[in-house]
Records
---
Amino acid sequence: MKKLAIALAAALMAASFASAQANLPQTSAPTQAQLSKVTGKLELVQGVIAIKTNGKTYLLPRLQKVAGFIKGVEEGGTVTVEGYERALPYTADVVILQATKLTVGGKDYDLGQPGQGAMMGGKMRGMMMQGKSRGGNMQGGRW
């Protein structure tokens, strides 16, 4: 009787997981990011640094990291940004530009490829996957 109850509970859980997967919102097929180059004045759009040009708004989330450290990366500053353009699913006039190169006042800055240094990427991910953290190993750390 106990085995039957456990099997029935497992079957109900499996059915509920399968039905939940069918209710996820369907998004469009992933598109290949294209390399773009945009020049314009920086402004703040919904808390994100952006350039508005040619009726399109290019959100530049990677510039948040360098704002305040590179002279000219400020509201109203004119910059040229190269990077990979990714469309947002529900709007055609706003895109995300994952910047790889920034030009301000004739000086170029290499921002690296998207995904480098991202959260849980690179060195920290490897360390944590091996059971290490900043405080030593996970079992015998400072805490």
Note: The mean pLDDT is 77.
---
Amino acid sequence: MKFYHLLLFLLFMSCNTKTNNNIFVSKLGYTIVLPENWAEYEDEKNTNAFFDTTGWTGNLRITPIKTDTKKIAELFESEVKALKGRAEKFKTQNRFEGVKYSEAEKENFMYYWYLIVKDKIFICSFTINLTEKETQKNKMELIKVNKIIDSIQPE
């Protein structure tokens, strides 16, 4: 009987600790935490691209670019100036600095994040239909996308 209770306890604990996330290890030298129902699809060279497999809510692309560490700060400040007040600085949970902004492009709305991680700049974008911009569905997806970007960790 004790064994039965122990088995039930372990089963209960394992069900409650299940995460709905997957660790994605990129061949481009970083890891991220993806929601369980997100998958990678083939895109441009040196870019990882992802989407929600349960229903299209947008495309997330992550492109890491290795650069000279001495020039990173200069490049970063140059981008901020070029965006003329449209960009907002931020830090990830891992204390990496970045800048984010958004803009409309034809039929799409684009969210951009530039993230400085050691000797790399990660250019991340999330593309949605322009008509979806103000929807609750998009707001929920942006929460997921921000968590994904927040989880970027170099190898």
Note: Confidence is low (pLDDT under 50) at residues 1-18.
---
Amino acid sequence: MEERITDEETFGYYLDFTRQEVITRIVSNPENQENWDLAQKIINMEKDSGFYNPDNWKAII
């Protein structure tokens, strides 16, 4: 059974880690559309959960 993250601080930590990983992948291989699609999904999730900050994405936007 998959465990859900319910702690806001822990969720923020995993979100930061995932965001940085996707940004690193995009910077190193900007032609890979899958990474851009993943970034868009994460941005949408951040917006839905109230964690979105455009400054976090300025390296690729």
Note: The two ends are 36 Å apart (CA to CA).
---
Amino acid sequence: MVRRRIRTALLSTAVTGSALAVAPLTATAAYADDVRVTYTCSSVITPTPTDSLMEIGITAPAVVRRGQDIDLKVTLHTLHGTIADRPPFDIKGWADVTVGGAGRGSVRAQGLTNTTPVHKGQEVRLTEGKATVKARHTGRYTFAPGAEVYVNTSDHSVTCKRKGGPTVAATTRVLPRRGEADGLRDTGPR
């Protein structure tokens, strides 16, 4: 009776362990707090460039395999009030994302918008920004607010350029494809 329980427990452990070994890799979100970034912004209303502090949030999967897409979600939060009431979806824009680490370059997160009304004097939170990066190399990819942000409302547009270097907001670890070596030979662009 005791042998049967031990054999059953060992068999159960072996089955569970082998099931875990063949389970597909699923993307889990790796999110860092919003990063505060100073941008220099200008518009038709304010043609003289002025500094504007914003919080940019970037959500990325914690782990993907080489060859897969790294899907990014981006948010933008102004730390100053809007000059007028804005209905939902009146504010639209995009934000560049700087890619570093094992990846290089930048991508543009399109689709930023206010999904709720914003009243005069309130800070603006834009969500729904999306971008995709192809995981071409194994290693750690980093994502930071990029060089430019553009926002358009029903009555004017604002163009902003980042001051200073990028601050990492999220990371993704890119593993080798199934069946590849540990990936030590391929750690980034050449």
Note: The helical segments are 2-22.
